[in-house]
Amino acid sequence: MTTIRVTTKLESDTLVLPELGPLIGKTVEIRVTEQPESAIDALIDHEYHAMIEAECAADPEPVPTLEEVRAALASIPGDMTADIIADREERF
Question: Does residue 5 contact residue 19 with C-beta atoms inside 8 Å?
């Protein structure tokens, strides 16, 4: 007897579970148990993440890589430390 345990968040009423491939054609018992939200999931603002993903998908300009950001910042002459400190002092 084969036992397969899959933990996933349901996003639709149609499931795609490739793990069940070996059992196709066999008689199986399927149980679905709702799991309580984990402590970490409770802290995540899923609505905000969905909004940001939608904005990023709609933006035709790709997000710069870390290397591109570093290269752009490296072209700024001098030290930005004093400017950052002054900006923080103005806000607080």
Answer: no
Give the position of tokens 């950001």: 69
Q: Where are the domains of the chain?
A: 18-91
Distance of CA 73 to the CA centre of its chain: 26
Q: What is the pLDDT of residue 61?
A: 80
H or E segment and range at residue 52: helix 46-58
- Banded pLDDT at 5 (limits 50, 70, 90): confident
Rounded to two decimals, the pTM is: 0.36
Answer whether 4's CB lies under 8 Å from 20's CB.
Answer: yes
CA dist., res. 37 & res. 40, Å (int): 8
pLDDT tens digit string along 51-74?
988 888 887 787 889 999 999 988
